[in-house]
Amino acid sequence: MTVLADMERAVRAAAPHALVDVVREGLAAAYGATRVRLYLADYGLTVLRPVGGLAEEALSLNNSAEGRAFGSQEPREHQGREEVDHHLPVSVRGDRLGILSVRMPLERSVPEAVAELVRVADLLGHEILVAERDTDLYRQARRVSRLTLAAEMQWELLPARACEAAEYAIGAQLEPAYAIHGDNFDWSADEHALTLSVTNGMGKGIEASLLTHLAVKALRNARRAGIGIADQAALADQALYAQHRGAQYVSTLLLHFDLATGRVQAVDAGSPQLWRRRGKSVERIDLEAQLPLGMFEESDYRPQSFLVEPGDRLLFVSDGVYSAVSPHGEAYGDRALARAISATSLLPAALVPQAVLGELALHRQTETLDDALVVCVDWFGRGVRV
């Protein structure tokens, strides 16, 4: 406990850019660690990149020990003759950030020490999120190439790529990760409810990103005023119409989950597609299509209601996924999407979006990719997880 308490004090007192240095020094002193590296997953979830300007190549998420630890979210180790490499997931409430890799002497690698390393990795994840307010170091490590300005704006707007609570787990991903412009997702929860929005923006480049920014900020402003999702949609609709007079608008799906009952209220404002897997059955949930936000002045929105059950998986996809066409002219949403949802049934929510987008890339057989958004929600309900 003393080691962890000392480490926590040192990390919290460290300069934002020096977190890894402080952890390295602390682990060397406490456990004789000879090598400490922090790797962060890139925006496209393809590689793990070292933090701190190290002259190392990025590590594959699929073909490296560190990548396998990232995928399983379980500590892994590789034992040598005299030393052991420990690879420890760095995550915050289900949001997978990267891997802390620690090499230490074989005789020091006892279960108590490994348990301490796991807690240090957890501490580091939380401190990175705080440190990012004051340094670009960790964001720079996440990119394998330059983001477009529109993509930079969109990633700054997002809450996270994943989130876990007792009642649900969320995973989300946008592609092309380094050149997105209009699609977006957002969520917020308290002790009673989860509110989630998925936005399919129109247009290209900066114009699309600015439009989405206005829509998401307007929805957040209304949500934080404590009003229902129908009024949230109405106020965002007014904000967009006042700015663009109907020339630009956004398609949005708003959902409000009651955590105690699983009752969901939904507003479909010309929204992305909503699918549900229940048991072995995969089906699209048809909602009443209402006007996109900002299309007309003072649109009236009406919520619909449905029930989610423990074990249900909901999948939200934008037009860039649903309408993507194969070389033979088949839209992805016709049959391939349902197959992909079934094929990914054993994956946790955080990994589903990337897997579905991988299937989409095979379906399209082209490198050109419109904005494609996938959000997965696994519903556990209150009580024992399914």
TrEMBL record:
InterPro entries: Bact_Sigma-Reg (IPR052016), PPM-type-like_dom_sf (IPR036457), PPM-type_phosphatase-like_dom (IPR001932). The keyword Hydrolase applies. Keywords: Hydrolase. Residues 165-379 form the PPM-type phosphatase domain. The keyword Hydrolase applies. It comes from the Bacteria. This is PP2C family protein-serine/threonine phosphatase. It comes from Streptomyces tremellae.
